[in-house]
Amino acid sequence: MLEPCTFVIFGATGSLSKLKLLPALYHLEAADKLPEGMHIIGFGRRHWNDEHWREEVRAILEPKVRQGLDEQIFARLRERLHFFEGDLEELESFHHLRQNIEGSETYSQNVVFYMAIRPGEYSVVNHNLSASGLHVDDGGWRRVVVEKPFGYDLESAHILQQQLQRYLREDQVYRIDHYLGKATVQNVLVFRFANVMMEPLWNRNYIDHVQITHSETVGVAGRAEYFDHAGALRDMIQSHLLQLLTLVAMEPPASMQAESLRDEKVKVLRSIRPIPQSAVHAHAFRAQYASGLYDGQKVSGYLEEEGIPPHSTTETYAALKLFIDNWRWRGVPFYLRTGKRMAEAKSAISIRFKRPPQQLFRDTPVERMMPDWLLLGIQPVECVRLEMQVKEPGLEMRSRTTSLDASFNKEGDISVDAYEGLLLDVIEGDHSLFLRYDEVEWAWRVVDPVLRVWAMERDYIHTYPAGTWGPRETQRLFESEDQFWRHSLEPGED
Questions:
Q1: 240, 366 Cβ separation under 8 angstroms
Q2: Which of 141, 108, 103, 130 lies closest to 39 in space, CA to CA?
Q3: Regarding beta strands 333-339 and 207-215, do their DSSP bridges make them parallel or antiparallel, or are they unpaired?
Q4: Beta strands of 45-172 (E only): which ranges?
Q5: Is domain 180-410+450-477 given the CATH code 3.30.360.10 in the classification?
Q6: What is the pTM of this model?
Q7: Residue 250: pLDDT band by 50, 70, 90 thresholds?
Q8: Which CATH class is domain 6-147?
Q9: What element of type H or E holds 298?
Q10: In this structure, what is the dihedral angle of CA atoms 130, 114, 106, 169, given to the nearest 10 degrees?
């Protein structure tokens, strides 16, 4: 039974609130998941009253919700919506907010503060929450949700953590990574720990290498200022893809409790072999998309995008080769890559098994058999597929690749946005899919040497045509000649 709560959105009129939070709250209302007595306060500088805010929310939701806006569902959500006019930088606004919450019988004293704001504003908001007494949980719990990016590098992440620690306990902080809320990402845990058949094979004795890919067909898509400051390595690999790596590589936790799960993820990050600055080019590759063709249409290069400096060397493509120095994974390379303006938009984990130790089919058409793959599609195709070799029908000894498809989505299943589950977890107080600070810190330790070298190399960057799978030169990261990037989830295709 969920407790009633007050859900305060700082930055309620911003893009994150419009694109993700408000639609997620509507869908939770539609699923009858929001607790009775829950109220949602939009905090912003607009001169709006509750009625104006409710009509704004209706206009936001109409084009975004699944299966169209249902008037009965919205009527229920509408009663929960309130607007509070305030300035994030003014302490007086927070005193008034506290008086508003504590002085009204409408609002629960269990409060979620969601920071749908720029990271540069976290510090002042946390200070004002503390100075006004809003963070004190004497009469009910208080929780603060922090969006990524959590820092710009290891040093800035440490400074941000110190600022949070000054005012909040660790159990009050929810560092949200929406990628971990995706159903297939969570299904990695179920696949690994609810199916005993794969566990004997899940180690260096049987797995040749692991690839984790996130590719996008879009460019900077209106985020030029942010992206040119961050780059692909910070934007995707440091957070999302390293989290996927931990789920693939972690040991079975003692339980599915939040701290047990996060303890095992941290152990993986701590076990990643450090990359010396002298070896960065052997373990990392970056590139930037140039003009090219996508879907038959000419698209601009990165330097031609609006808001991008003409001599920028920010990477839109980044690839890393990592090794996990523990008993299970010693010597197995993990390849992580992400890129914009690529041939397809997809996220997937591709695990290649080793070849058989002895070739039994010499002097036959099956002279060299293809290796087996385990493919975990995350988006847009959500699937679990195991590829293996079988004999073709007929008299001759010929093989072909077939796929055992264990996809968990059935026709007619409704796809749930990651934020829906994560918001419920915040209300329930479940930290399992949220980042603990030591996870953030060790992830930064992995990529920091690469970032420092790339920051010094500002004269040249490799390019790749938009609409392709990235630069050919990235092949140099592979440990052996028979390794290659796996692009497709279809049997027998690379």
A1: no
A2: 108
A3: parallel
A4: 81-85, 111-115, 142-147
A5: yes
A6: 0.90
A7: very high
A8: alpha beta
A9: strand 297-299
A10: -40
